[in-house]
Model the fold of this input.
Amino acid sequence: MKKRAFNFAAGPATLPYEVLEASAAALLDFQGKGFGIAECSHRGKEFDAVLDETIARCRSLLQIPDTHDVLFLQGGATQQFALIPMNFLNGVAEYVITGEWSKKAADTAKGIAPDKVKVIASGESTGFDRHPVGWTADPNAAYLHICSNETVHGNRFVEWPKHPTLMVDASSEIMSRPHPIARTAMVYGGAQKNLGPAGLVLIIVRKDLYDRIGKSVPKIFNYKVHADAKSCLNTPPTFGVYVLLETFRWMERQGGLAAIEKRNADKAKLIYDAIDGSGGFYKGTVADPAVRSHMNITFKLPSEELTDKFLKEATSKSMLALKGYRTVGGIRASVYNGMPVEGCQALADHMREFMKANG
Done:
């Protein structure tokens, strides 16, 4: 394999090299048929077989029960911020805000039904450096919405809350570990972090929710219509689905999601140990270690000048896209499934060397 840079981008993000190789080959010639997978009709038998296998492997990896549908749609996770209330808001919905993306989800829902959206907890007053505490969700709410891992602020729900109608934006951690799908109403995530290229969203939705969907919801925005059409109401992102299939195959070869979770925890620990052992030179932006993300590791240096120098030197060592989100600053290392252990070790080594030279 050709030597590659360690790409710490938050998304679109690094993908396993095996997945890229297999997808590139299929892009040129799919199964020796003389045409590429991106040239297959979404109504043809070739893509239908890809779709069936992708759904089956997704169900197996996540242990998705028959009570839930698996959808592969366009629009990304952000579109679901609007579609969830459009489809399922039949009362008052509750939102917990733990960072940039859960706040955007709540704000979008408020724009659709301002009198039916209630923020029951928010960490905004402390800059999202910890999770809000002391909140209790109403089990009779239309739904409870959370973002399980906040890409920008680097925090996560280690355990997803229990609620009869739990909606989870899992975009930046989806399939980085086992998820309790059976007890959730809907889980969704953009593919461009852990699963594949941008342009595809994976949606897992409980079928009993379809009874809530009003007749005024256009078909193109109706989850049941998409489910009935097996994600082919309109032309789906066919190549994105194929990359997803190769990613699922790769996940199985790694030993499944439990094995991937362990590896991700080990990867994150390499970097957190460098932060915690720095004597304050590196300061994590999440004050509560219990909710630190294993996907997006955020920290700051003593000054902007040192931050710029750190980034420049990291780039010279082929460690890319480490600059923190514009509203947070500092450093953000996104270490999704596709990031090898060697990349995290290289960053940890760089952190210690840089501190020794500049501390």
Observations:
- The CA atoms of residues 313 and 350 lie 9 Å apart.
